[in-house]
Amino acid sequence: MNQASRFAPRGLCAPSPRQSPLSPVSQRDSPVLVNGHGSGKVILLGEHAVVHGVPAIAAGLSLGARAHAAEGAPALRIEPWGVRVERGQATPLGAAFDALLAARRLEGPEPGRVREHAVEAVIELPGSAGLGSSAARGGAVLRALDAADGIVRDFDGSQSVALAWERVFHGNPSGIDTAVALSGGLVRFVRHPAPGARALAPLAAGRLLRLVVGHSGQSGSTKETVARVADRKASVPEAFERELSAFRDVVADGERALRVGELDALGACFDRCHTLLAGWGVSTDGLDAMCERARREGALGAKLTGGGGGGCMIALVRDDAGDAAVRRALAEMGREAFETTIGETKGGEIDRRETP
Ligand code: PMV
C-alpha cells in the first residue's frame, strides 16, 4: 500500500463522487485558521536527475497546504483525511512530525523559544501525485509552529528543518520539493551548489507558460521510483553518467528557451525529458498515453512531472484553444486535469493561478 492511500481514508487519491484526485479543498470545505503555508509544485524539467546533482526547473502552485498551530499538547491533525498523530507514533506521518519537532530544536535560531503545539493542517492537493504534497504539508506545519513561537528562520534554516520531515516520506530527497514548498515561484534548483552559489535561483520566463496538469488516476511512490533510478546507477554506472549528461543538456536548453519565451523549443525539451525519464523506468503506460494524446491534440510538449510511477503529467499549451483541446482529450480518457499559468508579472512576482 502506498503512503497516500494509507493516510487517506477519505482520500484524495481515489476518485470518488465527493473528492476527485484534483479537486482542491476550499477554505469553505475545511475552515482552519492559518499561520503557515507551503506550496505544491510542478517540475518542468530535470526530476530524478536532480537527486544526482543535475539542476532542475520547477514552479510553485498556489495550491499546497496550510496549517495553524496553537497552545495544546503536541499533535498533528490533517484534514480532509481526518488523521491525527501524536508524538512518538510509529506511522510515517507520526515519524515525520517527530522529526520536524526535533529538527526545530536542533537547528537555531533561538532554540530557547521553541515550543511544541497542537497543529491542524489542511491539504489542497492529492498525495503521491508528483505535485509535492508531502513537502507542502511539512512546510506549512513548520511555518505554523514557527509563527506560534515568533521564530523567523532564513530560507536555508527552514529548508534543513523541512528536509527532516521530507526524508521520512522520500528517503533520499534532493530538496527541490521542500525548497519550492517554502519559496513558491519559478525556480532553478541544484542539490549541491558550487561554493558560494545558492541551491535555489528565481527564474523569469520570457512568456507566460500555460500548463495542463493531468492526473493518471494512479498514485505513485516517489520513494520507490527514486530507488529504481538508484539501482540503475549502481548496475550500469557508465550508461547512467551519459544519461545524466543528457538530462543536464535538456535542462540547460529548456532554461534558455524558457528565459527567452521560445515555447516550441521548451515543449521539445518537455518531450526529451519525458523520453529520458521513461528510459529510467519511472513512467507508466497511463502517463505515456496521456502525454502522447496531449501532443496529438496540439500540446507543444508533454511529460510526467515529479516522481512518476503514476501521479501527474504536464502539457505545455499555446493558448485557450490548446488548453481546451488537451483537457477535453484527457477527459475523454477519463483523466482529471486543471490548468495552471506560470510566469512573471511586471513587479517581478510570480503569477500563478489554477483553474479546475
Ligand atoms: O513526486 P514528488 O512531487 O515528490 O517529486 C519528486 C521529485 C524527484 O526528483 C523525483 C525526487 C527528488 O527528491 O528530487
Can you describe what's shown?
The protein is an alpha+beta fold and 356 residues long. Helices cover 40% and strands 22% of the residues. The protein is built from 10 helices and 12 strands. It has helices at 3-7, 92-106, 133-149, 155-170, 176-183, 222-235, 237-260, 263-279, 285-296, 320-332; strands at 36-45, 56-70, 75-79, 83-86, 118-123, 186-189, 200-202, 209-215, 301-304, 312-317, 336-344, 350-355. Strands 1, 2, 3, 4, 5, 6 and 7 form a 7-stranded mixed sheet that branches. Helix 3 packs across helix 5 and helix 4 packs across helix 5 (176-183). The longest helix has 24 residues, at 237-260. It starts with a helix and ends with a strand. The model is unreliable at 1-19, 23-31 and 345-353 (pLDDT under 50). The structure holds (3R)-3-hydroxy-3-methyl-5-(phosphonooxy)pentanoic acid. (3R)-3-hydroxy-3-methyl-5-(phosphonooxy)pentanoic acid (PMV) binds at residues 43, 47-48, 50-51, 130-132, 170, 173-174, 176-177, 222, 226, 306-307.
